[in-house]
Amino acid sequence: MNFRSKLTRTNLAAAAGALLAVGCGLLFHEYPLGRGLAQSSYDLLMVLRGEVRAAEAVIVYMDEDSHEKLGQPFNAGWDRALHAHLIDRLTASGARAIVFDVVFSDPNSAKPAADQLLATAIKQDGRVVLAADYGRFGPNANKIFPPFDLVRDAAAGMGSDELVPDADLVVRQHTRRGDSPLPSMSWVAADVAGAKITRQENREDEARWMNYYGPPNFIPGRSYYEALDPSLARDDFFRGKVVFVGEHLLTKFAGERKDEYRNPYTFWLSQEMKHQQQALYMAGAEVQATAFLNLVRGDWLRRLPWRTETLLIIGLGLVFGYGLVRFHPVWATVVVLGGLAIVTAVFYLLFSRKLIWFPWLFIVVQIGVALFWSILFNSVQLYVEKRLYEQTLRLYLPPKLVKKFAKSRELLKPGAQKQILTLFFSDIANFTTMSEGLDSDELASTMNQYFEMAVADCIHKSEGTVAKYIGDAIFAFWNAPDPDPDHAVRACEAALLLRAQAGQRFNGRLLPTRIGLHTGMANVGNFGSEQRVDYTALGESVNLASRLEGLNKHLGTHCIISGETRKAIGDRLVARSLGKFQLKGFEGLVEVHELVGWPDDAEATRPWREAFAEALNNYEQRNLEFAQMGFQRVLESKPDDGPSKFYLERIEDLSRQQLPDNWVTHTILKEK
Q1: What is the pLDDT of residue 529?
Q2: Which of 130, 200, 283, 477 has the fewest CB atoms nearer than 10 Å to its CB?
Q3: Would you call 373 helix, strand, or coil by DSSP?
Q4: In which element (H, E) is residue 423 found?
Q5: What sign for the dihedral angle of Cα 387, 393, 395, 397?
Q6: CB contact at 8 A, 122 and 152
Q7: 72 has pLDDT over 50
């Protein structure tokens, strides 16, 4: 695969990954689709932080136990004399302020004295905040239902008890002044308690987010009947604290109103706690107390400006979307795990140290999308590369070795190594003359049939590696890339198979093939340029195998092997020595043998092989007369024996010369 085209594809995939990640993040950030993720981001930050002690407020609950013990009527408001008694008790205990999350909207005509007692107690305390209802929907939309005049005039302040929960019943934002004509009850309570934020101008309508300190019922509380009895609720429980009074979520009989909410911890409680309704929901009074604590402590939460959040989403989407594509799926997963850890840590620190929360799960989803795209792209690319790699291997290797090496990338590694190989060169005799009489299509068809036969039925059948086609020639080798101790035998078997197949016709033509084999050291590996490499072998041994193939033309043989190959095959195949030759480009002498046939051919060929061996021995002993007679006897048994004819011509040429006593018996070839 071309490196530049691969790089271009990777860049395009990286750009697509960046667009996907950024687009996904902006989709969640800008549209309601991401609301659930944003809410979960908010919730998880608090759960990760854990509980935080906040002792500035406590709650008195109008619960069922109090209803029963105090004998309050069904489906009606509580006796306001009890509320007056409670205020007196809390005043005496040194409560910092008292906040009633109860709307006293109408005077009680049946008990006007109780109303007067309540107003007197409120007035005497001087730090009591009362709730007012604000109708948001229905026929009472945009209407205010304040406390009746007697108690309202006595109170230190009045605030809206309006809370705006999300669809999952979690109140995540403080009630803003823009949401109601009245200031919120928590804001008024904070003002009465002397919070700094309420003394600053233009702060009431700021966007503030609730900072919950723990799960439902985390803020300390007492039942109403306990608060009335100093023996059950000690003064120091209330001293110096703002006391919120409101119904408990399980109250069935407090006629004023009932409300219940969840908080961020609700969704992460244990299964055992979830079976307890009190653990799942919190009373509205506790939500009001939490908002008040945020204002008094100054630890409410903020969000980054919209533009900043958008830039963060775009920036991180670009980083992960563009970068992850460049990693292998395994490493991409490792990078993602590290990235998630960093993102979580950074946004958690921003939350815990700066009280700023960011919808960080948008980033998690972006990273997930980028990882998915990276895995998809790289998996498809790896699949395609694997198929191309297998296709390339099939050009070199037999099917058995293709399956083996397709699982690794050994053959793609750059460089080479020295290895003992048996090298194979084949060439079609008189190919140039034959090809001149064929048109291009016929030549291609003929050669394709020939190569298919030579490779599939001969070289690959004996586990050989095809290095390349050179015109009509084939260069192959054995013992690489897969080691094979019998590489020389297998190479010779391939040569015998090819010699036998060469007798068949291809498009009506015989294609006699000459083969040269040599076993020796060569450099085998990947050679080439940056754009293209070949798995091949180089070195002197390769050149020698090529020279041996060419020697067939001079000796009239079909398959010549070197002395090294002859030693390697031993007696497992039939061969005969053809003498020593000095080939062009080689200074040393080369022992040359002809590969005769299979073991079954040994007996049938023994007479003429032994006769040839005797004649060759006489020739090398410089007994030319006896050598001549010996080669002639070989021709009587094998009339077409090329080596015998070669030596007879050689003897005839020598007989015309004046030879010294020590004339060289080896043959020197000055051409390929």
Answers
A1: 74
A2: 200
A3: helix
A4: strand 415-428
A5: negative
A6: no
A7: yes
| pTM of the complete model beyond 0.85 | no
Q: Inform me whether the pLDDT recorded for 202 exceeds 90.
A: no
* Nearest Cα residue to 429 out of 560, 583, 558: 558
Please give the backbone phi and psi of residue 96, each rounded to the nearest 5 degrees, phi first.
Answer: -70, -40
Tell me if 594 sits within 8 A of 575, measured CB to CB.
yes
DSSP symbol at 72: P
Per-residue model confidence as pLDDT tens digits over 27-50: 999 999 999 999 999 999 999 999
- Which residue type, as a one-letter code, is found at position 417? Q
| pLDDT digit string, tens, across residues 285-332 | 999 999 999 999 999 999 999 999 999 999 999 999 999 999 988 999
Between helix 185-192 and helix 284-297 the angle, nearest 10°, is 50
Measuring CA to CA, how many Å separate 395 from each of 6, 240, 442, 533, 537? 22, 89, 22, 14, 15
Could you tell me which residues come within 8 angstroms of residue 368 by beta carbon, excluding any fewer than 6 positions away?
336
Contact 310, 202 (CB under 8 A): no
Return the structure tokens found at 419.
């290895």
Beta bridge partners of 582: 668
CA distance 284 to 170: 11
- CA–CA distances in Å: residue 68 to residues 62, 85, 150: 11, 18, 29
pLDDT at 257: 40
Residues in the chain, total? 672
DSSP state string for 448-467: HHHHHHHIIIIIGGGT-EEE
* Beta-carbon count within 10 A of 103 CB: 18
Q: In terms of pLDDT, which residue wins out, 182 or 220? A: 220
Q: What amino acid occupies position 119?
A: A
Q: Which residues have a Cβ under 8 Å from the Cβ of 469 and sit 6 or more positions away?
A: 451, 475
* CA–CA dist 544, 518 (Å, integer): 7
Helix (H, G, I), strand (E, B) or coil at 521: strand
In the block, tokens 């902006």 appear at 26
Residue 255 confidence class, pLDDT cut points 50, 70, 90: very low
The residue with tokens 């009506």 is 508
The model's confidence at residue 256, banded by pLDDT at 50, 70 and 90, is very low
In this predicted structure, what is the pLDDT of residue 267? 78
Average pLDDT, the chain: 89
Q: What percentage of the chain carries pLDDT values higher than 90? A: 66
d(CA 260, CA 62): 14
Alpha-carbon span 2 to 594, nearest angstrom: 43
Say how many C-beta atoms besides its own lie within 10 A of residue 31's C-beta: 9
> What is the CB neighbour count within 10 angstroms for residue 32?
8
Copy the structure tokens of residue 638: 């094998």
